[in-house]
Amino acid sequence: DFQSYLSAANTAISPFDFEIRSTYHQASRIRIYALVNTTSDPITQLATTRTPDELAFLKRVLDAMFETYNTRRHEIMAITSTQAVHLHKAPSESEGNRRETQNGAATQGSSGQGLSMVQAEKVLKGLVEEGWFEKSQKGFYSLSPRGIMELRAWLIETYNDNGEEDEGEETVPKIKSCFACKEIITVGQRCPKNTCPCRLHNICTQNFFRVQKTNKCPLCKTEWTGKDYVGEKAVTTTEKYLQGKRRSGATSNSRRSMQIVANEDEDDEEQDDD
């Protein structure tokens, strides 16, 4: 059968540090297969096909997805095309304090000047065509199933703070897994309680709650509303976004709404520090 064939293929290619892995698409439930290098970091792999400035731009986009627009209140983990293109220039040193990844050496040789907007658009288009990113009908870029599979370990190591929290402080990791299928989740539903790490893919909720026989969070027992979202719906279902959409175009509205979200979350963090 197919699984036996797949197992035999993986046995044959394992000496070359390759493995065929699979995952389900988070929205369509279609199974996706990818050939993954098991030893070389995916970011390092991309460095062989991208210039240092292009790779630095990609990291800024990932930082925006998984830090700027992935907060306790709004787990968007996506970025609009306009927001992405505006990251074409490298930040000045005074704007630094960006997270340094364990693969920082991959960007050595960068001119520090960044890209032009046209070049940034070309890189984004290429990442979609190569299967690393997906672009939604509303103009949001997010990691594709292939991107999540290949970047899984890197994402967890880069964006999840281990051991940096204050004693007794309850923290929620940036990169989370679906409670049901255990795969990384960037699109789905979240527990209404902000400090609870429980997340579920939309395609996992029906079977999960039917087996559980209660619509309560399995971790904190909060009533599960199904209206607290992970992914672009975390912003596109907000009242501010919907009001702006009625008044103006979707693209400019997305840009304003994302900025509002970022500002609200910064205010929340300042209040938490107080």
Your description of this structure?
The chain is globular. The protein has a 3-stranded antiparallel sheet with strand order 3-5-4. Residues 97-106 have low confidence and may be disordered. It has helices at 2-13, 42-46, 52-68, 81-85, 117-129, 145-159, 202-212, 233-236, 239-247, 250-273; strands spanning 18-24, 31-37, 79-80, 133-135, 140-143, 188-190, 199-200, 229-230. The termini are far apart. With 274 residues, the protein is of the alpha+beta class.
Helix and strand topology:
Blueprint: H1 2-13, E1 18-24, E2 31-37, H2 42-46, H3 52-68, E3 79-80, H4 81-85, H5 117-129, E4 133-135, E5 140-143, H6 145-159, E6 188-190, E7 199-200, H7 202-212, E8 229-230, H8 233-236, H9 239-247, H10 250-273
Antiparallel strand pairs: 1-2, 3-5, 4-5, 6-7, 6-8
The radius of gyration is 19 Å
Our count of helices gives: 10
Terminal CA distance: 60 Å
**Stretches where pLDDT falls below 50 for ≥5 residues?**
97-106
**Biggest sheet: strands, sense, closure?**
3 strands, antiparallel
Strand content: 5-15%
The coarse overall form would be globular
The helix content, as a percent range, equals: 40-55%
Give the ordered list of helices and strands. Answer: HEEHHEHHEEHEEHEHHH
Mean pLDDT over all positions: 83
Q: How many DSSP E strands? A: 8
Structural class: alpha+beta
What strand line-up does the widest sheet have? 3-5-4
List keywords for this structure.
single chain, 274 residues, globular
How would you briefly describe this protein structure?
By secondary structure, the chain is an alpha+beta fold.
